[in-house]
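Readers of this paper often ask what the protein records in our data store actually look like. Such a record has a labelled line for the sequence and another for the backbone structure tokens. The tokens are whole numbers drawn from a learned vocabulary of local backbone shapes. We quote a single record here, exactly as it is kept in our systems:
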Amino acid sequence: MQEQLLIKSVLVQGLTDALGKFLWASRLNVKYQREAIDWLGSKDFDLVCSYANWQPSEILRIYKDIKKHTHYLTATDIRYLLYEQITRRS
């Protein structure tokens, strides 16, 4: 069970970073966002999704749905929404 929580937390963090929402301001945030976007759809991303018992396409759909609303959502809002979406199905 602890492993599942860890894997789901990795997904939430990766998606939050890809959405460009960070809890702190840093000049490195653009770099982190680019790395996270590159991670989406990669073999490593697919592996993490499989460990979390999700299809990568389902996680990408959640990402795209939330991305439409990033202009008014905070990083905390996005993390909450992602966590709820990813853990609800478990």
About this structure: Helices lie at 2-18, 29-39, 43-51, 56-67, 75-88. Residues 2-18 form the longest helix (17 residues). The two ends are 10 Å apart (CA to CA).
